[in-house]
Specification:
The protein has eleven helices and 19 strands. By secondary structure, the chain is of the alpha/beta class. The chain folds into two domains: 168 residues, Cytidine Deaminase, domain 2, CATH 3.40.140; 196 residues, no CATH class. The strands form five sheets. An eight-stranded mixed beta sheet has the order 7-6-5-4-2-3-1-8, with helices on both faces. Helix 5 crosses helix 6.
């Protein structure tokens, strides 16, 4: 039986939600440590209906009053902000009264939310590299009798609830941070022969092709291939043992081999993990595409267009020592795929026209990833690395956008100064300038750039237009008087 591990801070948060709002609901963000234990990383109350419920504090709300659409919307938005090692794993309810009698309603709520999630995921490809999750947690807290009920929900045939153990633990959770800078560089053919091409469909093809490639990728930790069967704790112990041996070898450097040992120790320290740091550097290597296909499948074909993707995806995940290396590698792959999919979704949501002619050169600048840590009052005490979530900003957008999103979706207050904005740099403007020049030189080719406009440029053009209009007006008045005098 799976056990849900919560901290004392989680218990205080449930109590606060029940006291201040009498009835609250929201999402549970968790981490699967192993087959038997799941850590609760964060509880986030849904505040979408706060404005409608301001005058209903004395009304006895219940699970039947929960909006499945509002809950699913929060679920999807939070999933985009989670690192690859975390997921939204369920729903919680905190009430001043006992809600245990509404388990049938809770089951229907889960079913409705799951159906909405399925439709959303089908509309924009597969979100993870693993099999879709089907088991979720339901947590109900009653302020009246301080009672907690925890159930495991399984989708299918209307859904079923089964018993699930839970435990509030005093010992802080310990997190190991892994980082990776993934260099995305690929060219895909556009097989659509229509004159007007749907941009969203082409981006969908990017996700499908990338998922297929990353599933067969190799993940290196600290530039080494590590066995999938061992857990992260064993790997760390081996690394520390290697560090101690290198320390002993480098203390008395008398031979060239000892000198090499000293250089190796320096290299290990420079990689970011040894010497007390909690960061493990990872790298993802994709195989050559020709290796994925049979010789008979390789053909030379002509296409009406191509789709090029270029850039760097910054990856940052947080794992438990209980995680196997196979889990760690899967989390890293998931984080890269999740980040790419989220950028494309956010970008396509802002398109005014999703079609472009096949003669055009269409240049896109998706948003970049920024990171933020949950504030102390919104998370539990933890050892090791500090847990971070992420958001995506277009060129010109301010950190206050992240603050608003974190408040609405994760129910946390952020200081804009604490948001890490430099994890990914802005693309070089010369890329767009060169493409514009190439397009101007091509016959019957129209260049289309779809990037966030610079506010300074827009204001300058606006003021220039006013100045020209005033000049024309003054010239007309002067000409009128001159003709009148004559």
């Amino acid at each position: 039986m799976r056990t849900l591990l919560l901290s004392k801070a989680d218990e205080l948060y449930l109590e606060k939600c029940a006291q201040e709002h009498r009835f609250s609901y929201g999402i549970i963000i968790g981490h699967q440590a192993d087959l038997s234990k799941t850590f609760v990383v964060h509880l986030a109350r849904n505040n979408e209906e706060d404005a409608d419920l301001e005058d209903l504090t004395e009304v006895g709300l219940s699970i039947s009053d929960i909006s499945s659409q509002a809950l699913a919307s929060q679920w999807l938005s939070a999933s985009k902000m989670c690192p690859g090692s975390f997921d939204v794993i369920g729903i919680f309810v905190a009430s001043a009264t006992d809600q245990n009698t509404e388990m049938k309603t809770a089951k229907k709520l889960f079913s409705d939310v799951y159906d909405i999630l399925l439709k959303s995921n089908k509309s924009f490809g597969i979100y993870t590299t693993d099999v879709a999750q089907s088991d979720y947690a339901f947590l109900s807290y009653s302020l009246a009798n301080k009672q907690v009920v925890c159930k495991s929900y399984t989708y299918g045939n209307g859904g079923t609830f089964s018993d699930m153990e839970f435990k509030f633990v005093e010992k802080p959770f310990e997190w190991i941070r892994l980082e990776c800078e993934y260099d995305l560089e690929d060219i895909l053919p556009i097989v659509n022969t229509a004159r007007r091409v749907n941009i969203e469909e082409q981006f969908q093809n990017i996700i499908v092709a990338f998922r297929k490639n990353i599933l067969v990728s190799e993940v290196f930790l600290q530039n080494e291939i590590v066995e999938d069967t061992i857990d992260l704790q064993t790997y760390i112990k081996k690394r520390k043992s290697k560090e101690e041996k290198l320390k002993a070898s480098s203390s008395n450097v008398t031979t060239p081999s000892d000198s090499c040992a000293s250089d190796s120790l320096h290299l290990l320290r420079s990689q970011g993990y040894l010497g007390g740091s909690a960061i493990i550097r990872a790298s993802i290597v994709l195989p050559v595409k020709c290796q994925l296909a049979k010789p008979s499948d390789i053909k030379v074909r002509e296409f009406n267009g191509t789709l090029r993707t270029s850039g760097i995806i910054s990856t940052r995940i947080f794992c438990s020592q209980r995680n196997s290396i196979a889990d760690v590698k899967r989390f890293l792959r998931d984080d890269v795929l999740r980040s790419l999919t989220t950028r494309i979704q956010v970008y396509c949501d802002g398109l005014t026209d999703s079609y472009v002619t096949n003669e055009a050169i269409f240049i896109s600048e998706p948003p970049r990833r920024v990171f933020f840590s949950l504030p102390a009052e919104g998370t539990k005490t933890s050892k090791g690395a500090t847990v971070q979530f992420s958001e995506y900003l277009f060129r010109g957008e301010a950190p206050t956008v992240v603050v608003a999103q974190a408040k609405q979706i994760l129910d946390v207050e952020l200081d804009p100064e604490t948001i890490l904005m430099d994890a990914e740099g802005l693309p070089d403007d010369t890329n767009f300038t060169n493409s514009q020049t190439d397009a101007d030189e091509a016959d019957e080719t129209r260049s289309m750039t779809n990037t966030m406009p610079k506010p300074e440029l827009s204001r300058s053009l606006y003021m220039l237009g006013i100045a020209v209009a005033l000049l024309v007006l003054l010239s007309s008045v002067a000409l009128h008087y001159m003709l009148t005098d004559k």
